[in-house]
């Protein structure tokens, strides 16, 4: 929202950590900044940070410093819940010990207890809701160790679609990463979020999963992050998540 009584746009961008004041001025002049859907090129433009929606190069800028965005590597054997009435280890235990003061976090991307990997944590309810909604089709990538030697044509079969009891599922991408006697490490990407979907898909294709790790959700990657560790998302990662769900 443009606001004659607001704060200069370049100052808002600088305070949000996007760029220095001078570099922010260049971004504005080059037409790379939008305020509420309109490109702004005037350096004197003032905005209301509490009401304006600002994008730089198409990625939204987070202006509310009370919002939290975290990447968690869920260990194997842990429940993907913030609490567990049966007393089983859950991701809420990790949050309790490592993210004090941030109790109202949503978890994005549930994993079964036997699966390790990336889960997003945020108190940004709108972003969490959209990331979990199937209409936005945010891709998720997994590394799976399967039983047996994978034939050359499996990727084509998975991309064409496998029929499961609750409907068909298709892989967006598939690759063989490594092979050892009796096992194959594969990488596959899909935007489905149904329960145990990767395990069920590969089992239906004849290759039961022995180990499974989710490595990516949209633009956010696990990288070298250790199981049980939590890290804040970078600004560019947050911006890309917003972009992926149309915010």
From TrEMBL:
Domain RNA-binding S4: 7-67
Gene Ontology molecular function: RNA binding; rRNA pseudouridine synthase activity
PROSITE patterns, per database record: PSI_RSU, S4
Top-level division of the source organism's lineage: Bacteria
Entries under Gene3D superfamilies matching the protein: Alpha-L RNA-binding motif, Pseudouridine synthase I, catalytic domain, N-terminal subdomain, RNA-binding S4 domain
Enzyme class: isomerase
Catalytic reaction annotation: a uridine in RNA = a pseudouridine in RNA
Keyword Isomerase belongs to the record: yes
GO BP field: enzyme-directed rRNA pseudouridine synthesis
SUPFAM superfamilies listed in its UniProt record: Alpha-L RNA-binding motif (SSF55174), Pseudouridine synthase (SSF55120)
UniProt family annotation: Belongs to the pseudouridine synthase RsuA family.
This protein's name: Pseudouridine synthase
Organism taxonomic ancestry: Bacteria, Bacillati, Actinomycetota, Actinomycetes, Mycobacteriales
């Amino acid at each position: 929202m443009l606001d004659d009584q607001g704060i200069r746009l370049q100052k808002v961008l600088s305070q949000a950590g996007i760029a220095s004041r001078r570099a922010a001025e260049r971004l504005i002049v080059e037409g790379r900044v939008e305020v509420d859907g309109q490109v702004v090129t005037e350096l004197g433009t003032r905005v209301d940070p509490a009401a304006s929606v600002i994008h730089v190069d198409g990625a939204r800028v987070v202006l509310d410093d009370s919002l939290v965005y975290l990447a968690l590597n869920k260990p194997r054997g842990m429940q993907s819940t913030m609490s567990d009435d049966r007393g089983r280890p859950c991701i809420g235990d990790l949050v309790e010990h490592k993210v004090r003061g941030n109790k109202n976090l949503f978890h994005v991307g549930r994993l079964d207890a036997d699966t390790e990997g990336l889960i997003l944590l945020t108190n940004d309810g709108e972003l969490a809701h959209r990331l979990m909604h199937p209409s936005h089709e945010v891709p998720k990538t997994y590394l799976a160790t399967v039983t047996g030697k994978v034939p050359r044509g499996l990727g084509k079969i998975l991309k064409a679609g496998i029929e499961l009891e609750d409907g068909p599922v298709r892989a967006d991408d598939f690759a063989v990463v490594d092979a050892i006697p009796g096992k194959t490490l594969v990488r596959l990407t899909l935007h489905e979020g149904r329960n145990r979907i990767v395990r069920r898909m590969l089992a239906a294709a004849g290759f039961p999963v022995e180990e499974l790790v989710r490595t990516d959700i949209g633009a956010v990657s696990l990288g070298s992050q250790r199981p049980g560790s939590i890290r804040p998302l970078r600004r560019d990662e947050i911006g890309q998540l917003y972009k992926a769900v149309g915010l």
